């Protein structure tokens, strides 16, 4: 027996040593807040809002429940921040791609931007789609799509006017194009085949050529 420490009765019987105490990592307030957001984002993507509890968020973050309440006030508060961040990320990415140029190039940019978001931020996309499916007329994701469609409508209206088409139809076409890309993105979230650029090329192929003029092997012309 090692000198300097008396063995407990449990150790004498089982030979086991007491477990080492769990050491919590000290973080600044902003670091802890970001950690909680990362943990909650993963749980909301995995289980949805109803399936996620404050207890589980606290457990995965290795903190007590009061810490979560202190930073966000409750599950609704942390969920709102997660959704707002994802909404802004997707909207910024989509709108920043629509910077003019040939209409086909803008279609390619928009399709690639949304699919890139799905690829890079699949947890965030799951949260947005679960909160408000693409086909829904209300909710966070529908609001984002409407904002994107408004940007596309403005660009289409200019192109329609330049080519002698009815500008009033720009809103219809904008909703159709954005909805087509968004629904395909929702499907591709789980399918992940074909590759992103190939999916984008086929979306542009359909939107640009129409079913009566589909290219046999479409490819993006960017780059």
From TrEMBL:
Region (Disordered): 1-20
GO biological process terms on file: negative regulation of DNA-templated transcription
Any one Pfam family match given in the protein's UniProt record, by short name: TetR_N
UniProt DNA-binding region: 53-72
PROSITE patterns according to UniProt: HTH_TETR_1, HTH_TETR_2
Superkingdom of origin organism: Bacteria
PANTHER family reported for this sequence: HTH-TYPE TRANSCRIPTIONAL REGULATOR RUTR (PTHR30055), TRANSCRIPTIONAL REGULATORY PROTEIN (PROBABLY TETR-FAMILY)-RELATED (PTHR30055:SF227)
Sequence ranges assigned to domain HTH tetR-type in this UniProt record: 30-90
Organism annotation: Amycolatopsis pretoriensis
Gene3D superfamilies from the UniProt entry: Tetracycline Repressor, domain 2
Name of the protein this chain belongs to: Transcriptional regulator, TetR family
Single GO MF annotation: transcription cis-regulatory region binding
Record's keyword annotation contains DNA-binding: yes
Keyword terms of this UniProt record: DNA-binding, Transcription, Transcription regulation
